[in-house]
Amino acid sequence: MTSAKDIRPRTDDLAAQAQYLSTSPSASFHSPSSHGSALTRTIPVANAKHLKPFATQDIKVLLLENVNQTGREILQQQGYQVEFLKSSLPEDELIEKIRDVHVIGIRSKTKLTARILKEAKNLIVIGCFCIGTNQVDLQYAADQGIAVFNSPFSNSRSVAELVIGEIIVLARQLGDRSNEMHNGTWNKVSNKCWEIRGKTLGIIGYGHIGAQLSVLAEAMGLSVIFYDVINLMALGTARQVDTLEALLAEADFVTCHVPELAETKGMIGPKQFEQMKNGSYLINASRGTVVDIPALIHAMRSGKVAGAALDVYPNEPAGNGDYFNNELNEWGTDLRSLKNLILTPHIGGSTEEAQRAIGVEVAQALTRYVNEGSTLGAVNLPEVALRSLTMDEPNHARVIYIHKNIPGVLRKVNEIIGDHNVDKQMTDSRGDVAYLMADISNVNAAVIKDLYERLESLNSRIMTRILY
């Protein structure tokens, strides 16, 4: 564990700080696709000033579920106290752990419910080292002023490549042939084994993953159609269809890439299987609740669906082991008995490249929030950012005031900071929560303390942070 640097309020010269590199959230690489992945790069800002939080002891970070080393190293290099665990924690243990941490990093197994977050008195930010954020109570976190960041782009390619592989494996019945060979059976057949060239791929959800998959599929000779709830620009020769029914009726392969919402729960059920072509294939690498599994079992047994690949499930084990059974999901045995069925343990984004990129992307977002207050990329708070302070601005402080979005707040805040020179200020709201950031010049530790205490006393306050 790296020793934490002193970040307590100081009475000495505020300018006595080392020079650090600052990450520019806008400096990103984008693929030719407007939906493509973005890899955040660290850009050195000349003479950048490293801000520290006022009225906060050493920043404590808890990382669960074997967050990639790249992310751990970025956080450790900041001087934070980083505790790393390879697994998730039971709820009661997590409540004990989370009480004194300022930053928590999780993946998909850890559930941060309102009950858990209620105990996290020091928590200011959550990092989801994955695409999804449905494991976090986002509204409760926002109401407490806790920012939540994720990685919406970094594993898109990994998931898209997995789906391409599964399309070929299903079309050629490779899983069954492999299992037969492992059991000593030689079964050379071509019946109902197909090339994918010239077939039609139907993509449900044309976001980052769906668009990447579209490009790869076309390169392999597939015709691509897609359905999305909003109109999107198609890549290549892909074509958007107006309804889910139209996609199901035309596609030879159907693949799901949608978030977990009330509207997507059971999105593929008995009615949708009936609408699919006879002998078509289904792939789900999105969320486990999207596909009605008993309906899939029936469709495969009847021959309506010739094969399927599942990477996600309604209930998933909290850790590795012999847990994928009927106790977890009552249909487990029936599902495992099917032919030409690929079952994988939620590994769509589990590649070295994806996990490294996710580690960098989320860890940098966390450090930007802790050190600079930037909420760019936050999924539950307004997106607000100011340019970095520099070493030429030694006696400056950055005021961050997260508050209830009610009338009169800005007047009261500006009455408090108005006696000082406000160099720059920005505010935005999202629902019932608003986020204000202002840089104030010519202040010392006594002035900062006074500002902090006066802002904390306001009835509209959700969270006050002052960085200097």
From TrEMBL:
<dbReference type="Pfam" id="PF00389">
    <property type="entry name" value="2-Hacid_dh"/>
</dbReference>
<dbReference type="InterPro" id="IPR006140">
    <property type="entry name" value="D-isomer_DH_NAD-bd"/>
</dbReference>
<comment type="pathway">
    <text>Amino-acid biosynthesis; L-serine biosynthesis; L-serine from 3-phospho-D-glycerate: step 1/3.</text>
</comment>
<dbReference type="GO" id="GO:0061759">
    <property type="term" value="F:2-oxoglutarate reductase activity"/>
</dbReference>
<dbReference type="InterPro" id="IPR029753">
    <property type="entry name" value="D-isomer_DH_CS"/>
</dbReference>
<dbReference type="InterPro" id="IPR029752">
    <property type="entry name" value="D-isomer_DH_CS1"/>
</dbReference>
<dbReference type="InterPro" id="IPR036291">
    <property type="entry name" value="NAD(P)-bd_dom_sf"/>
</dbReference>
<feature type="domain" description="ACT">
    <location>
        <begin position="398"/>
        <end position="468"/>
    </location>
</feature>
<dbReference type="InterPro" id="IPR050857">
    <property type="entry name" value="D-2-hydroxyacid_DH"/>
</dbReference>
<keyword id="KW-0718">Serine biosynthesis</keyword>
<dbReference type="Pfam" id="PF02826">
    <property type="entry name" value="2-Hacid_dh_C"/>
</dbReference>
<dbReference type="GO" id="GO:0051287">
    <property type="term" value="F:NAD binding"/>
</dbReference>
<keyword id="KW-0520">NAD</keyword>
<comment type="similarity">
    <text>Belongs to the D-isomer specific 2-hydroxyacid dehydrogenase family.</text>
</comment>
<dbReference type="InterPro" id="IPR006139">
    <property type="entry name" value="D-isomer_2_OHA_DH_cat_dom"/>
</dbReference>
<comment type="function">
    <text>Catalyzes the reversible oxidation of 3-phospho-D-glycerate to 3-phosphonooxypyruvate, the first step of the phosphorylated L-serine biosynthesis pathway. Also catalyzes the reversible oxidation of 2-hydroxyglutarate to 2-oxoglutarate.</text>
</comment>
<protein>
    <recommendedName>
        <fullName>2-oxoglutarate reductase</fullName>
        <ecNumber>1.1.1.399</ecNumber>
        <ecNumber>1.1.1.95</ecNumber>
    </recommendedName>
</protein>
<keyword id="KW-0597">Phosphoprotein</keyword>
<dbReference type="InterPro" id="IPR045865">
    <property type="entry name" value="ACT-like_dom_sf"/>
</dbReference>
<keyword id="KW-0028">Amino-acid biosynthesis</keyword>
<dbReference type="GO" id="GO:0004617">
    <property type="term" value="F:phosphoglycerate dehydrogenase activity"/>
</dbReference>
<keyword id="KW-0560">Oxidoreductase</keyword>
<dbReference type="GO" id="GO:0006564">
    <property type="term" value="P:L-serine biosynthetic process"/>
</dbReference>
<dbReference type="InterPro" id="IPR002912">
    <property type="entry name" value="ACT_dom"/>
</dbReference>
